[in-house]
Batch of 2 targets.
Target 1
Amino acid sequence: MFVQPKVRLGNKSYTQTELQDYRKANTQRYNQQVRHDSRNKEYTTFYNSTQWRKLRIQVLTRDNYLCQHCLAQGVVNDKDLIVHHKIELKRDWSKRLDMENLEAVCISCHNKIHEK
Ligand SMILES: [Zn+2]
Ligand SMILES: [Zn+2]
């Protein structure tokens, strides 16, 4: 029977096949990381854009500077507001500037939304 020569890495030894899989997994992890980072950069640029800053104010004005989730519970809350994307950027980039997809929420409601 053919026995694959083993390669020692640290205190483990691997066959060529195992090493190939190992390298493949590493490359995949690396690519995911790079893709993730460039995506993040895209989001940061978006959140820093004048377009977004203006739209944010429009949404806050439309929602009377009140957390829409607290309001639904009958609570008037105008503290720590942020503008939330109902459909997140990473799920649908085209809805990032859609007023219908945006709402004013407070930080604690926002945390609850994203906990789900
Ligand atoms: Zn709230
Ligand atoms: Zn959000």
Note: Residues 13-115 form one domain.
Target 2
Amino acid sequence: MTPERRIRVAAENLHTVFPEANSLDYFEAGVSQAFPTDELAGGSAFTYFAPKQKTQYLEIVRSPDWAYPVGSSNYRVFFAGEHVSYTHGWIHGAMEAGLRCAQQAHTSANSLPSKQLYGSSFDPGFGFV
Ligand SMILES: Cc1cc2nc3c(=O)[nH]c(=O)nc-3n(C[C@H](O)[C@H](O)[C@H](O)COP(=O)(O)OP(=O)(O)OC[C@H]3O[C@@H](n4cnc5c(N)ncnc54)[C@H](O)[C@@H]3O)c2cc1C
């Protein structure tokens, strides 16, 4: 379909669903965006896992990384986004991952005494309990 035809079909479909709105009478202009053909969107609107990839990799990509000191639980890098959630493909997944990252950051920050977090020369004046 051409972009003009897509806009027309969408407007007609809206009219079919809500005829009482007389939306075609008010129609002025439209914009069409085809994500599957959008190079900058990577040809997709969101993540598509291949079969079994989610089972295999999700727990790994949800895990925080870059512990400092090495071997500690004080992680510095956290992975957010719909693609690292159980409900990928939805805004819900992005929020779920964001909340999980906040929780992981909080847990990491609490894993060391404050002096180790900030270095011995800086005492923020409050402790992480
Ligand atoms: C057409 C379409 C319709 C959709 N409809 C729905 C719907 O009805 N309901 C629903 O729940 N979900 C819908 N979704 C999915 C939903 O929009 C996504 O799941 C959600 O926005 C993902 O959020 P995110 O934070 O993971 O990523 P994004 O919202 O993509 O945010 C990533 C951000 O990172 C920025 N960024 C990228 N690279 C860099 C970089 N190198 N440096 C700095 N910033 C960078 C980007 O500019 C972007 O702002 C739809 C998506 C599309 C495309």
Note: The two ends are 60 Å apart (CA to CA).
